Amino acid sequence: MQAQEKTRRAQSIELVNDLALVGMFLQRAGNRQVRAYRLNQSQFTVLREIVRNRDLQQKDITGELLLEKSNLSKIIDKLEGMSLVTTRTPEHDGRAVVLNATEAGRQLYRECSQSLDQLKTVFTAALDDVELTELAGAARRLKELVVSHLTQEGETRGEVS
Question: Which residues, in sequence order, are CB contacts of 90 under 8 Å at separation 6+?
């Protein structure tokens, strides 16, 4: 049993290391792709959520994107300053922030998405349908585990500092 534990521990370490390396690569590659649009990968990801969801509340993005509230606020300020999103406080809840994309934000999202599609092709072209489905499911499950861990730890639902 002890040998199995060591093997599992070694596999876990390798998994976390490999995920970190892939994540860093995707962040760098994404940044290169969206730099021409005066965005970084994190800003594009937040813009994508706002474009896809009308009247989205800031608190909903925090957990979904694994971002800390302070980081998300900075990103939203930047997107608002670029006239890509609008923010408003609903009358019924002065603490909430409701986000919507402007037409310029939707247009920029479409342009960036086309650019990022080239990056996606690098991965999807090498995977068959079964592999792609399994990998997407595993990635969703890992994200659920991270959110669950952060919630159990009592941390802000977001990235670990």
Answer: 96, 98
Question: Which of 43, 51, 47 has the alpha carbon at shortest distance from 71?
Answer: 43
pLDDT tens-place string over residues 39-61: 999 999 999 999 999 999 988 88
Is 58 a member of any domain?
Answer: yes
The predicted-structure confidence for 103-121, as pLDDT tens digits, reads as follows 999 999 999 998 888 778 8
Nearest Cα to Cα of residue 44 among 59, 22, 29: 29
Q: What's the CATH number where 22 sits?
A: 1.10.10.10
pTM: 0.80
Instruction: Tell me the residue range of the domain where 15 lies.
Output: 2-152
Residue 128 identity: D
